[in-house]
Automatic annotation (TrEMBL):
Belongs to the short-chain dehydrogenases/reductases (SDR) family. Keywords: Oxidoreductase. Pfam families: adh_short_C2 (PF13561). Residues 3-189 form the Ketoreductase domain. This is SDR family oxidoreductase. It comes from Kineococcus mangrovi. Transmembrane segments: none annotated.
Length: 244
């Protein structure tokens, strides 16, 4: 894998695992975070211990100028050849009947507008670099719908899946592949952030493999999709969900 990879939401969870999996292979990353600077600094320090430089940039993906700045910062490490469009949020369990507009808008702002803005910047940089790969982090929720939990979140991830298909066709001739992963129940802080730290344990019985997944297991799929080993894969999204 050549060049620099931009990873959004790289300070914790799946994004941090991606940064470190890439660092272990000598791939430099410029990764974004929203507020947790200490966590971001720790990830950058661990990447440095692995012998690979990285840059952590505070950048809210729903803010256009932040996204532009994130990609500009990445150029300090060399041409950008990859994006892992990973930053995302959920929200407390709720039925559709109880949703309000502010909550739905915030989910769509971060998960959809943010993903589009990052993809747009990536297309510019990857085209200039002669090609590359965009990996969109979706969710199995996009297919399952998350009834009684967060249909709005699920719908935001369905939009990400559509971005993967449509953009892949737009930029294939420019040497850019656009692919996705749909994680299932993965042990990260995201469940506590939406008010249910025990969510993975509550639902583990619904997973054919009988357990929640680890962030590293998603990161390995992302690394493969970014790599030349996946050179004929585009416009599709891989489930990483233990069969759920
Ligand atoms: P997480 O542990 O909560 O980490 C979220 C990351 O995104 C953090 O680095 C956070 O930065 C960053 N972030 C949050 N809002 C942001 C914003 N507005 N702008 C920029 N960065 C932002 O989440 P995760 O579980 O690793 O989830 C990563 C992705 O996987 C998300 O897209 C999520 O929807 C998806 N996913 C997760 C699961 C799961 O079970 N965990 C399942 C399916 C899909 P700070 O550290 O600064 O807050």
């Amino acid at each position: 894998m050549r060049g620099t990879v931009v990873v959004t939401g790289g300070s914790r969870g799946i994004g941090a695992a991606v940064v470190l999996a890439l660092a272990a292979r000598g791939v430099r990353t410029c990764f974004g975070y929203a507020t947790h600077r200490e966590a971001a600094d720790e990830v950058a320090a661990t990447a440095a211990d692995l012998g690979t430089p990285s840059i952590a940039v505070r950048a809210d993906v729903s803010v256009e100028s932040d996204v532009t700045r994130l990609f500009q910062a990445a150029r300090e490490l060399g041409p950008v050849t990859g994006l892992v469009n990973n930053a995302g949020i959920t929200a407390p369990r709720s039925k559709v009947v109880d949703l309000d507009a502010d909550r739905i808008r915030r989910l769509l702002d971060v998960n959809v507008v943010g993903a589009f803005l990052c993809a747009r910047e990536a297309v510019k940089h990857l085209t200039a670099a002669g090609g590359g790969t965009i990996v969109n982090v979706s969710s199995r929720a996009a297919v399952l719908g998350s009834p009684g939990e967060y249909v709005d979140y699920a719908a935001s991830k369905a939009a990400v899946d559509t971005l993967t298909v449509g953009l892949a066709h737009e930029v294939a001739a420019d040497g850019i592949r656009v692919v996705g992963v749909r994680p299932g129940l993965i042990r990260t802080d995201i469940h506590a952030a939406s008010g249910e730290p025990g969510r993975v344990e509550r639902l583990r019985g619904t997973v054919p493999l009988g357990r929640g997944g680890e962030a590293d297991e998603v990161a390995e799929a992302v690394v493969w999709l970014l790599s030349d080993a996946a050179s004929y894969v585009t416009g599709t999204t891989l489930d990483v969900s233990g069969g759920r």
